[in-house]
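Protein modeling request. Please complete all fields; requests missing the sequence field cannot be processed.
Requester role: graduate student
Desired output: 3D structure, C-alpha cell encoding
Chains: 1
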Amino acid sequence: MTTSPGLLAVIDMQHVFADPASPWAAPRYAEAAAGVRRLLPAFVNRTVFTRFVAPAHPTGAWQAYYEQWPFALQPPDAELWRLTDDFARQGEVVLDAPTFGKWTPELAALAAPHGRLALAGVSTDCCVLSTALPAADAGIEVLVAADACAGADDDSHAKALHILDLYRPLIRVTTTAELLG
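Delivered output (181 residues):
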C-alpha cells in the first residue's frame, strides 16, 4: 500500500440527494456532509467533487431507468444537480458523469499520481460503490470513509460497506478519524 495521502473524491453531494422531498434523498445526507467537511482540510488541492447528471438523450438500459425517474431528465445546470451550497464553494475540480460510477478517465488521471483514492459522499450503495470497484480494478488503493457516506437507507448503506470491505486489501472501509489520523 502507498503512504501518499491520496486524492479525495467527494461523490455527488447534490441537492437531489440532500432534499428530503426528493425521491432520491439520502436520509443521512447531513451526517455524510459533516464527515466530508471534516476531511476537506486534510485534502487541500487534492479534492475532486463529482456530480451525477442526466444525459440529454438516454440510450440503452438508461431509457427504462429514466422512464421510472422522469423527474431527473433535467439539464446539467438544473437546481437538483447543483452541489449543495456548503460544497459548491469548495469544488475547485468538479467532474460530471451521466453514470453511477464516477471512475471516468478524468478521475483516473487525477488519482493516478497519488495511487490512493479516498471516497466520501452519496449514495454508498450506488455511486460510491460503482466508483470504488473500477478504481480498485485499475490498481488504485481505495479507502471508503464510512462515516462520510450515506446510503439510500441505513440497511443499504451497511450492506454496501460490507460488500466493499470484501475487496480488502484493494478497498478498505475506514472512518474519517482513521483517514485524518
